[in-house]
Design a protein that fits this description.
The protein has helices at 7-11, 29-39, 49-53, 91-98, 188-194, 212-219, and strands spanning 17-22, 61-62, 103-113, 117-118, 123-132, 136-137, 141-154, 163-177, 224-228, 234-235, 250-254, 258-267, 279-286, 291-295, 309-317, 321-328. By secondary structure, the protein is mainly β.
Amino acid sequence: MAEHEWMTPIRALVGKEYGRVYAWDKVNAPMIRHWCEQMGVSLPVYTDPAVAAESVHGELVAPPTMLQVWCLEGLHMNNYPPGSTKENPYEALVLLEAQGFPAVVAVNSELEFDRYLKVGDDLYYSTRLDSISEEKTTALGTGYFVTLKMTYFAKGQQGVQDEEVGRLLFRVFKFRPANPQPASKPDAASADAAAGLPKIQRPAPGISDDTRFFWEGARAGKLLIQRCKACETLRHPPGPSCPSCHSFEWDTKTSTGRGTVYSFVVMHYPEVPPFDHPNPIALIELEEGTRLIAQLVGVAPGEVTIGEKVQVEFNTFDGDLVLPQFRPVAA
């Protein structure tokens, strides 16, 4: 397929290096501690100075996956520290949108680390537009895969050269939706039925020998948690061995199905049938201590709150697909 002429100036941006974006704060212990608490990370080398001093690091270090966190703008969009570039590293996306490709969905993200970050490191990153694919047609629509690479550096001290500490590859699909919907539309299922279209079914979960018990339990109206026979550690998602003692022997514990909303997202776009939109998805912390991801029902997307008490319910879709979903419990 011949490429559109308007793609020429957009493709000319490939390889462009954008300026620095600085961190508001140096790597510091309070932010590490807050991040570890939120993520459920308990390794003392990140939070206990005494333990860290006896480790191979000799001092407190930050979890590697915090790399991107240090240079985020904070609550307000594009609120970067003085001296940061004013260039928009996403200008290729802006130009594609002007050509009729309004939708965007993240495809994949890859983090690479050269070393652990230490308390006191002062970071910045620069961005490079790595590539733009040929025009592609997917189930979502037609568009372009755009790949950006951010390179992170720690500022050198007293004449020492800045040190590259990691990289982030971020790829998105900028596309024209295959089936754009008007802002106000009839019920999707009714519209499809009126048009004589087959009903779109929910995708079935992938079931393996490790997860079969969970889905069989759901069909029986039970929320089962995998439990190590050797040390009785509960784990979810299910796996072949215990992460605590490495035993391969396990059984299950039946959960009460009660829990709280530990975290949540509300998916607005893309609208993937047959799911309702906006679609609230929560990370549920069960009474037993494990967590699992599930759809919330019986609550408006804008009214979900952290810490809200919920109860599991088992709902059947497409005849035989049984899914555990969670509904808020009245105070």
